[in-house]
C-alpha cells in the first residue's frame, strides 16, 4: 500500500519526464486495483470485520471529541471565551463517537464547499394514465422535462405485482441515466377523485434507489455522500425531501386533497440509502414526515440506529458479506419490531463486495424470500412478508404508475465564517438506538459433574493392584529351606516386616483399586 502511494506521488510529480510519469501511473492503477480486490476478499471472507473497523474509528473519534470538549470547557471556565464561540460549540459537540465523526465530516464538507445541495425538485416524466393505462402497448417517457434534462431510459413501466418486482424496479432505475434521481410511485386502489378521503382502500408503493456516487462534490442527483451522512445522523437530506416531494406530486396529480397526504398509507422498498430514507420516514410521526409509512422493505441498508413506529411492518434484508449495513457502527441486532433476514453468499471471482451489495443480488434474495413464504408461510419472516404483500395490487385492482426525476440545485460557495457552518447545522431532537459497546461472556454456572478417570489412571490402578497382589503372595510363601514357623528373617505371620514395620503392599494395592472404583 505504501509502495502504491509512492507510485501515485511519482505519477503526479511535474518535474519528472512524461513517459516515466505514465509508467508510474499505470503501475499505480494496477496496484490499486489489486489492493482493492484483496481488500474486498478479506472483508467478504471475514463477516464482522467491517463492524469492528467502524467501531474502532468511532472509538478514536470519541476520544478526540472528549479532548475537544475538555478544551472548550477550559476556555469557558478560565474566562478566555470572549466572543462566546467556545460556549456555543460546547453545547453542540456530540458526545457519541460515531455522531462526532459524521457531524465533523458533514461540517468540514460543507465548510470546504464540497456539499452544495440546495432546493429539491420533483417532476414526473411518465404517467400511465396519460400513456393510455398501465398496459399500454408502447410505454415510455411521455411528459416533458425542463430543458437540458436527458430523457431517462427506464424500461419497467408496469405496476409491481410482488416485492421482487419493486426490488427489480430499483435495479432498473439505477440505469435510467436521469438528470437527478429516478423514483417510481404506484397508486393502488381508487383514485383520489373517486375517493378523496384516506382509508378507502387506496395505498401507494414507492421504489427508492441508493447512493448514485461517492464523490465529495455534490451533483444534481441528491443521492450523494452528503445525503448519506445526513441520513445516518437522522438529519433531513435532499434524498428524503425528494422522495416525499415525489409522493406528494403523485397524490396531487391523482386528486388527493393536500390535507390527506400525511394519512395516505405508503409501502416503500429501498436499497442502501433508499432504505435509510424509508426507515427515517417510518420512524417519524406521519404529520412531521408528510407521509404515512405502513410497510418498509430495506436491502443492504445501515438503518439500525433508528427505531421505527410500532404500527410499521418492516423487513430488513442484509447479506452476511455486505459491508454497507455495518457502516453505521451498529451490531446486527434489531432495535425494534423489524424482522431481519440474512443470506450467506458464495464469493465470486471478481468484485465480491460489489456483488454482495448489488441491487440485482438483493432482488434475487427478495424473490427467494417471497417464494419461501408462499411455500411455508410460518414464522415471523413469512408473516411480515405477507403483511407487506397485502399492499400490492390484487387481481384487476386499478393502478396508476408515475415516474419522477428528482434533482437538487447546486449552491455557489461564498466566503464566510466556517465555524458557523458547524453551529448552524440542523439537528433534530432525536436519540439513536443504543447498543452496548462493551461485551463480556455470560458467567459459567458450576455443576457437580462426576469425574471420569483417564486411561492412564485405569492402567495405573490395574498395575498397582497386580503388583500388590504379587507382593502379598511372595510374603505368604516361605523361602526354600525355611519353614512356616522358623525364626528366620522371613515375613511374620501377621504380615509385618521383621523389624516390626508394616510393609503395606497388600493394603496399598487394594486401596488403589478402591479409590479408582469410587471415581468410576
From TrEMBL:
Superkingdom, natural source: Bacteria
Residue spans of biased composition, Basic and acidic residues class: 499-510
Residues covered by region (Disordered): 474-520
Keyword Hydrolase: yes
Gene3D superfamilies for the chain: alpha/beta hydrolase
Annotated SUPFAM superfamilies: alpha/beta-Hydrolases (SSF53474)
GO molecular function: hydrolase activity
Record flagged with keyword Methyltransferase: no
Keyword entries, A-Z: Hydrolase
Protein name from the UniProt record: Alpha/beta hydrolase
Organism, scientific name: Schaalia naturae
Lineage: Bacteria, Bacillati, Actinomycetota, Actinomycetes, Actinomycetales
